[in-house]
Structure formats: C-alpha cells, structure tokens
UniProtKB/TrEMBL annotation:
Classification via PANTHER family: HYPHAL ANASTAMOSIS-7 PROTEIN (PTHR34992)
Entry GO CC: plasma membrane; side of membrane
Classification via Pfam families: BIM1-like_dom
Native organism taxonomy: Eukaryota, Fungi, Dikarya, Basidiomycota, Agaricomycotina
UniProtKB keywords: Cell membrane, Glycoprotein, GPI-anchor, Lipoprotein, Membrane, Signal
Membrane topology, record value: Lipid-anchor; GPI-anchor
Keyword Glycoprotein: yes
UniProt domain Copper acquisition factor BIM1-like: residue ranges: 17-165
Name of the protein in question: Copper acquisition factor BIM1-like domain-containing protein
Leader sequence segment: 1-18
Disordered: annotated span: 162-189
Subcellular locations according to the entry: Cell membrane
C-alpha cells in the first residue's frame, strides 16, 4: 500500500489541479484527467454492462492526491441519464449522499446507503446511475457509474474497503512526503470519522459547491 501511495502522490504532484479517481464501483469509462471537469467525466451515455450494487449498505472508494476536499454523490433513476436534468427532481439536485468534507489525501472508502436516501424509483432491481462530485478547491470534478440495485447483493470481498491517508498537495501545502496512516472502521453511515456531514444542503449547482468549498477553506 505504501508503494501505491507514493505512486499516487507522484502522479498527482505532477499537476497543479486537483483530480480524483472513482475506484469502485467501476466508472463509465477509462479515466481521462482532462475530461474530469465535464459531466460524468466526459462519458455522456450510460453503459449497457452495469455493475450490480447493494441497495443498502454499499460503499464507494475514491483516490486522490489532493488534501482537503468535499465529495458528494448524485443519483439518477433514468436508464440513460445524459444531462444534469437527469440528476435533478423538481430542479433540485438529487443527492444520495450529502457533501462531506475530508482533510486528508489518499484512498477513502465511504458508505453509500442508497435505500436510506429514499429516492423515488431507487429500489431493488432498478437501474440507476451515481455521479460522484468532487471539489478540491479549483472547481468540480465528476465520475459516473451505471448500476443495477440489488437488495441481496453485498460489496464483493475483492473491493478493498479501507482508508489510507497520505501527504498530498493542497492550495496551502506543497509537502509530498509519503507518510501514511491507516484507519478502519464500520461501513455504516454512523461511522462519521473525519467527515463533517453537511446535512440539509441542497446545492443548486456547481457554483454552490464551489462557494461551499471556499467557505470551508
Ligand atoms: C437495465 O439496464 C440493462 C442494460 O442496459 C437492460 O438490459 C435492462 O432491461 C434494464 N432493466 C430495467 C429494469 O430497466
Ligand atoms: C464493461 O465493458 C467494458 C468493455 O468490455 C469493460 O472495459 C468494463 O470493465 C465493463 N464494465 C463493467 C462494469 O463490467
Ligand atoms: C415535484 O413538484 C410537484 C409539484 O409541486 C409535487 O407534486 C411533487 O411531489 C414534487 N416531487 C418531488 C419528488 O419532490
Ligand atoms: C473512511 O473515512 C470516512 C470519513 O473520513 C468514513 O466515513 C468511512 O467509514 C471510513 N472508511 C473506513 C473503511 O474506515
């Protein structure tokens, strides 16, 4: 894990801007850093080979070399959500998980309890798409994953669900010393850890998230 941590630090240290990767569930397409600023990371259409995903008690894992970020998750119940409107109900973005703030850089396995969000249509057997929204201080970044929800499916054991923080880069720090620390814990939504849940937030768009991040920095 230390080797991969160093590799990711080196990777991200090369660029000035923030990036993140959605490691699980599998995103729509191959990661293209330059397209991450675009809707679904540049992949407009849903894939036909969807990942089966737990209706309850799921997780998603991201990796970033950028210390200090907010991350939230939007959900659409459309078969082919290819516009921002697809991720909104009544002109309000459909959050399956409110924005959370994380101070570190590294790999994070974050609970995603879709059933608990009570989104109409996000039920057993439904095709849904999640859009992970990441803000590291210089604008929103996006990755999407097309899923089929299952009440009997649990996160595969092949998915590493652990948090590993590294010294990343941020607006206020240029340190790249690869010190690591690991934590483990429950995957329940009650395992708040370092994340502050910003409940009740219904950002109307990317500007709102950018404003939020600015307020927190
Ligand atoms: C879910 O998506 C798959 C692949 O696109 C499709 O074959 C299937 O009919 C869809 N299921 C539902 C319930 O819409
Ligand atoms: C879907 O198919 C593509 C092309 O074969 C593959 O690269 C990708 O891993 C598949 N995705 C899933 C979620 O199985
Ligand atoms: C959307 O707005 C309509 C009209 O105000 C309302 O009847 C409906 O319940 C709303 N739907 C949701 C999901 O909030
Ligand atoms: C990782 O950290 C986040 C918050 O920082 C926490 O919600 C989550 O439960 C942690 N995951 C593990 C596997 O400890």
């Amino acid at each position: 894990m230390l080797v991969s941590a160093i590799a990711s630090v080196a990777l991200f240290a090369a660029g000035a801007s923030a990036h993140f990767r959605l490691n699980y569930p599998e995103p729509r397409g191959v990661f293209v850093a330059a397209n991450e600023v675009n809707f679904c990371g540049g992949y407009v259409n849903a894939v036909s080979n969807r990942s089966t995903y737990p209706l309850s008690g799921g997780v998603f894992t991201i990796n970033t070399g950028h210390a200090g970020f907010t991350v939230g998750v939007l959900l659409s119940t459309e078969q082919n959500p290819n516009s921002w409107e697809s991720f909104s109900l009544n002109e309000t973005q459909t959050f399956v998980r409110d924005y959370a703030r994380e101070e570190g850089a590294g790999t994070f396995c974050i609970p995603l309890d879709i059933a608990g969000a009570n989104i109409p249509g996000a039920v057993d057997g439904a095709n849904v798409t999640i859009q992970v929204v990441f803000e590291g201080g210089d604008g929103n970044l996006y990755q999407c994953a097309d899923l089929t929800l299952s009440s009997s499916f649990t996160t595969p054991s092949s998915v590493t669900c652990a948090n590993e923080t590294v010294s990343g880069h941020s607006e206020s720090s240029t340190s790249t010393a690869p010190s690591t620390s690991s934590t483990s814990g429950s995957s329940g939504n009650s395992g708040v850890g370092q994340v502050q849940y910003l409940s009740g937030l219904t950002a109307a768009g990317s500007l709102a998230l950018a404003g939020l991040a600015a307020a927190l920095l």
